[in-house]
Automatic annotation (TrEMBL):
Annotated organism of origin: Neorhizobium lilium
Example GO molecular function: DNA binding
PANTHER family membership: DNA-BIDING PHAGE PROTEIN, TRACRIPTIONAL REGULATORY PROTEIN-RELATED-RELATED
Domain of life: Bacteria
Gene3D superfamilies assigned to the protein according to its UniProt record, in alphabetical order: lambda repressor-like DNA-binding domains
Endpoints of the signal sequence: none
UniProt keyword terms in alphabetical order: DNA-binding
Entries under Pfam families matching the protein: HTH_3
Every HTH cro/C1-type domain range: 14-68
Protein name, per record: XRE family transcriptional regulator
């Protein structure tokens, strides 16, 4: 797995965790002392999320840091590398049916725009 793919996969998990907690990018940014654009860069994979920052964000959101990295290597081996496939696989792995269904509904709504 390339570094850029790893950054994107971790960034997507950050975004999912943030959305599940109902937090804005600006709230996370303020907590770690950066501009909200930095959170955007983490989430879209253009900037690498350091372990130190990940731990601070996870503590703030009350999220297990292991959730950000577990299964990424497996997903990379089974994925075509297409970001849509990676996201779809991550959505399928969400254990909470209601969260998974709400996220799928949101994605369908955004795709229709």
């Amino acid at each position: 797995m390339k570094d850029s793919e790893l950054n994107l996969a971790i960034g997507q998990r950050l975004r999912m965790a943030r959305l599940e907690k109902g937090l804005k990018q600006s709230e996370l940014a303020a907590h770690i002392g950066v501009a909200f654009q930095q959170i955007q860069k983490y989430e879209n994979g253009s900037n690498r999320l350091s372990v130190a920052v990940m731990l601070r964000l996870c503590a703030f959101m009350d999220v297990n840091p292991g959730d950000f990295v577990s299964g990424i290597a497996d997903a990379a081996e089974t994925s075509s590398g297409d970001p849509a496939d990676v996201i779809a696989e991550q959505i399928r792995r969400i254990p909470d049916d209601a969260v998974r269904n709400n996220l799928a509904t949101l994605i369908r709504s955004l795709a229709a725009v």
